[in-house]
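Exercise 7. Predict the joint structure of the components listed below.
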Amino acid sequence: MVIKAHLSRGSGNPFQNIEKTTVLQETRTFNDTPVNPRKCTHILTKILYLLNQGEQLSTTEATEAFFAMTKLFQSRDVILRRMVYLGIKELSAIAEDLIIVTSSLTKDMTGKEDLYRAAAIRALCSITDVTTLQGIERYMKQAIVDRNSAVSSAALVSSLHLTKIAGDVVKRWVNEVQEAVNSDSVMVQYHALGVLYHIRKSDRLAVNKLVAKLSHMSLKSPYAVCMLIRIACKLLEDEDSSGGGSSDSPLFEFIESCLRHKSEMVIYEAAHAIVNLRRTTSRELAPAVSVLQLFCSSPKPTLRFAAVRTLNKVAMSHPEAVTACNLDLENLITDSNRSVATLAITTLLKTGAESSVDRLMKQIASFVSEISDEFKIVVVQAIRALCLKFPRKHSVLMNFLSAMLRDEGGLEYKASIADTIITIIEENPEAKETGLAHLCEFIEDCEHTSLAVRILHLLGKEGPRTKQPSRYIRFIYNRVILENAPVRAAAVAAMAQFGAACPDLLPNIQVLLARCQMDTDDEVRDRATYYYSILETQDKPLANHYIVEGLQVSIPSLERALHQYTMNPTDVPFDMKCVPLAAVPSEEIVNPSAKGGQADGMLISAASSGSKVLAVAATVSREESYAEKLRSVPELVAFGPLFRSSEPVELTESETEYVVRCIKHSFPQHLVLQFDCVNTLSDQLLENVRVEVETPTGYQLVQEIPCPRLSYSETGTAYLVFQFPEELGATVGTFNATLKFLVKDCDPATGLPDSDEGYDDEYMLEDFEVTLGDQIQKVTKANFGAAWEEAGATHCELADTYSLSNMGTLEEAVKNIISFLGMQPVERSDRIPEGKSSHTLLLAGVFRGGYEILVQVKLALAAAVTMQLTVRSTNPEVAELVTSAVG
Amino acid sequence: MAILDNDGNRILAKYYDKNVFATAKEQKAFEKNLFNKTHRANAEIIMLDGLTCVYRSNVDLFFYVMGSSHENELILMSVLNCLYDAVSQILRKNVEKRVVLENLDIVMLAMDEICDGGIVMEADSSALVQRVALRTDDIPLGEQTVAQV
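Solution:
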């Protein structure tokens, strides 16, 4: 103490100059008899302080210190003893032979001194493992129901930690824990609830009962109520995902009633929970939003922060529900806490009207430099939403974004801005030129390679179609001079795009490309040479194929195919046709990362040489994952590469005894039906599960693969393989299916069948259809016009006119046509400018077997929608099928 | 949970989730960053690196409680309040760096009692002080002991 007092007067921090070795030397003092508590406490504190500062002890050092520490059990000094417990816990991870203190700790934990007991339990539990736990089990049970709340809490929390290593043992304490839930102490109640939930969490029914019981009991502890709300939420989500939830369930009622709790903590938790539930309607949101509104005017910053953050979340899904709070939110814009202010503004941006945008943007600009990157990203996202909502405001917002782009910031922040600008360009043709100009300016001074590459790719795609393509060339060529290899390569590719699309720029581009052939980097040189020679041929279709369109096969499959090819050397050249086509990701799943993957995928230039294919982390498409699964079934390998897989079709209601869904896989000549069956009856074991199908004429059953065994809540798969009819017109039709199986009754608990005998049973499934869309893979065309003209010469054409009497709007018609044909709308032709009465929809796809299809649909709206459909395909039969299918 | 001094250096810190800031180096980097963001504005709450942090300062000390961004901010606040009040009671309202360091043992015990492995143990500061600071009475005896020796 003398030393300590002295030092603290002197240098300010008595712990500043301590060293590990000296402190460990000092632990020898622990061996003195009688123990000097003050001195020892001080030394212990030093050890703990060192550990806390991140100092590492070796196992021997830790074990030595630990053994010295055990001597201190002789002392009766309370603080020293407690520090010893703390030391044991800290060292438990590193030191060995901790077991020797078990008996000392057990003695303390059952002793008379209340002050020791709680801490001793926690220390003990941190050093026990499954085997030693048996020995102290009896004491733990006693401790859980101890009258002293501290002891009880300590025991409960320790058991919670123990569930990780010895869940079974803790399960045996359920009665004691149950008793503890009824305790008077707030914390005990909370901890007991936690343990109880963990014991039962695998059993949904039991948890349900638990919540039902406790929600009527009115728990005293706000923490416990918060916990209960979370459990209830989880149950609700589970119910929803299995499809059975309804808004008037008792669980939801309970959460809603918590909005009237007296503790703010509980009120907020409940409001937060309601907001976060996936399926809440705006009517259910209303009470939650109104309490959050109250919180907004609270004097506590934390409460305001919590409220605004949650409101911000609501605004994403239900902007109209938050409009009521706009006034309160406006007051928060000037909040002293920047986080609160930012959140308030972004929320307002989401809910506000067009007129207030200018004012809000000014407000943000005033403090945007003061907030952290995370919040800047939030702001950028809000602006993106705003641009989509109010396209007319794009100039204001675009200026703001470009100013933000010029500011300092991390990659993630810059990427989100660039993303936003790209989205705006894609959504709003008016904003295209300014947006591209801003991006050009940005890459002049961009330190992030990945971003520069993406922007160059975009320039290559969009630039040639602007009014003045030549102005972008300068920006792109600057990159070739100034940047590192990946950016240079991307710039070369972008220039080639210009060369292919703008004939008048071609000579200049060729000069530039020729210069790039001198580059120091292999990839850049290769690309330049490749593009140069293609462009030199002046062959339009060739340039279209290899420059504008890019690769349409799925990258992982290509990689695998090439790998296999190199493993078995043959004289036959590698055939690109055998690689499955990449599905165009559907709109909903295009997230920023997928976009990035696509852009990168286009960078792969040399399709002829296998060595250069970069392993791109492209998003694995649905086909990929199915192809992987189908490959694992040996019987199915012979049918060639998978062409297309459909979305799963439910063949039963979701709440029936057996749940069956069907996925249709098209192969070049075969149709494979995959039936995923789930057995929801716990007392039945199904064997030899198969599906019998009545097919339209022409289909031939080739193979049947039943699922040998299906026990409770397992998913099993049965396959049926058909050969497609020769005549294409017959491929479209309805299938009636019946599920057949052998039932064996079994014991629900063990899943073992009662006897070996079973009986045959069957179960009617709903009908499903094989449509045209199932046989067509979506592909995209970057330049539809060129492809269409080219096809005019080489493909056969069929045209027909239809009247779509049951469709009232063009949007509806477009949506229906796309989903019916299963083809990819290109050049954003699926978006219809407002107020137009005619529209041209362009679709591209590939029919199984590799026949290309291009479709041009001219729509006109009079009283009903009339449609002129022109199909160009390499196969006349396919073209006929498309036209006849629409009729 | 962390207590930092007015240069952003760690006095005491405890992280309960091994997935977040696994090494001491990462932890300290985070603390520095956190300190830089918070030491000027007294705003009570901030989001950083995907964590919600509530904080409170006094003289030359900063008290922080961090939690996942999905955590109920008010629960974090109640833990922070408990930490602060408990320390303040233990130190007899002299919440400053020198005094904390002098009584580091007791403060360590208090932090241990507030939270065990990420689970809130006790949020009532007076109950906590009762459990920890049995020697609160003889803290002023610090002077006496000097005299005694």
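Discussion. Chain A touches chain B through 63 residues (CB under 8 Å).
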